[in-house]
């Protein structure tokens, strides 16, 4: 995770104001409500690989009658759906589509099962089982990896929180250098956010899993505690 920050500190005091007014030939006056704060701009990045993958399983059949082709396709579809259930895949993550058409004296049916996986290990297990049992009668597509909205939201939140934490750490260090005691934050504002996807080259043995990186730049103002204030 990368981070950076910029710092601006404002420390006007009554003594400084009195000296400045004397230099200008003005009468010194009491100073009240002086601004004592440190303004910090912090930035950070957060990354995460894809947490979802969509995979297609397709079976086809050609028979002399619609009934025969339906029975053939249904038998293989049932096996695919059973394998998914055995590996804990919910019905909400599965969709099935069938296409029946007639070509001359034969009936052709294509069936497609689209599954969304959140567990990539289970995805590989299902893929291996179906290829072993159904062999060439099933076509297994290449998994399409992507980030769910929940995952993207978490990445953005982590980047923003890390940027604020980085700004607070820098402000704390600056206050120590200036001999001040850091107080509570006065203002937190997210100035800029960016998001990009890094796609690594595919390996021969497995498809690539994309990584999304989000960055956040925040501006935070902290007050300085008055060390001269008497404790009650």
From TrEMBL:
A GO CC term attached to the entry: nucleus
Keyword Kinase among UniProt keywords: yes
Molecular functions per Gene Ontology: kinase activity
Major place of residence: cytoplasm
Location in or out of the cell: Cytoplasm; Nucleus
One Pfam family linked to the record: SIMPL
Highest taxon listed in the record's lineage: Eukaryota
Record-linked PANTHER family: INTERLEUKIN-1 RECEPTOR-ASSOCIATED KINASE 1-BINDING PROTEIN 1
The family this protein is said to belong to: Belongs to the IRAK1BP1 family.
Protein name per UniProt: Interleukin-1 receptor-associated kinase 1 binding protein 1
Organism: Nothobranchius rachovii
Taxonomic lineage from the root: Eukaryota, Metazoa, Chordata, Craniata, Vertebrata
